[in-house]
Design brief:
- By secondary structure, the protein is α+β, with helices and mostly antiparallel strands.
- The protein is built from five helices and nine strands; from the N terminus they run H-E-E-H-E-E-H-E-E-E-E-E-H-H.
- It has a five-stranded antiparallel sheet, covered by helices on one side. Strands 2-1-3-9 form a four-stranded antiparallel sheet, covered by helices on one side.
- The longest helix is centred in the N-terminal third of the chain and has 10 residues, at 60-69.
- It is globular.
């Protein structure tokens, strides 16, 4: 069996107050399914959590208390209320911390709380945006210094049944949610999706997208 991935330990002190105040938290742990390790949300009683069932969510303090005593579990946020998520995979050198051009551009143009992903090779950005619908794309051409590379881009609108891991390994200058809605249209274009209001409705059930195979 493939070795279990090693996740960054949670740096609780690096998680800003406005993220801690978010009410919808879960634990997460690695499970081995279909030949790969996947990140699975759990409740504080170590039952499977659902990203569409608020009864399986908890407060930050509850997941913090559990994870402090059980380091095999991380913590995560269900993207509800007004928090949208941007997930860039394979955009960071885990040794040097260097970021690709698209990652740097995203952090320059989009305000929000940003941190290193559990693998150390990606970043996550929690923000308030004009994102109309979730979209994902793999293998976007990018560059890390003089080296050409490819990254994956995932954009998740709030209230569409997604959760993000939270590590607390914050990126300097991105330590709070923004006061104003951020324009992510240019980033949406990279996924080949549209960012029009017509793509979304006020009905959360209609907006809900099933998990894509191979994606966390």
């Amino acid at each position: 069996m493939i070795a279990r991935p090693q996740a960054l330990p949670v740096n609780f002190g690096g998680i800003p107050d406005d993220i801690r105040a978010h009410p919808d938290w879960v634990l997460w742990g690695y499970i081995f399914e279909d030949g790969v390790w996947k990140k699975m949300p759990f409740t504080t009683s170590i039952k499977r959590a659902s990203t569409t069932d608020p009864k399986t969510w908890a407060s930050f303090d509850d997941v913090w208390d559990f994870a402090m005593l059980n380091p095999d579990y991380g913590i995560g946020i269900v993207l509800t209320q007004n928090i949208d998520g941007i997930d860039l995979d394979d955009c960071r050198d885990a040794t040097t911390g260097a970021l690709t051009e698209i990652a740097n551009k995203t952090l320059t143009e989009v305000d929000g709380y940003a941190e290193v992903s559990p693998s150390g090779t990606g970043i996550k950005l929690f923000t308030i945006s004009n994102l109309a619908a979730s979209s994902q794309v793999k293998g976007v051409k990018d560059s890390l210094g003089e080296q050409e590379t490819q990254i994956d881009i995932e954009l998740y609108k709030h209230n569409t049944g997604r959760f993000f891991t939270v590590t607390g390994h914050a990126l300097n200058g991105h330590n709070a949610l923004p006061m104003f809605e951020q324009d992510v249209g240019w980033l949406v274009e990279m996924t080949g999706a549209k960012n029009e209001a017509a793509d979304s409705t006020d009905d959360d059930l209609l907006n809900l997208k099933a998990p894509i195979e191979g994606w966390d």
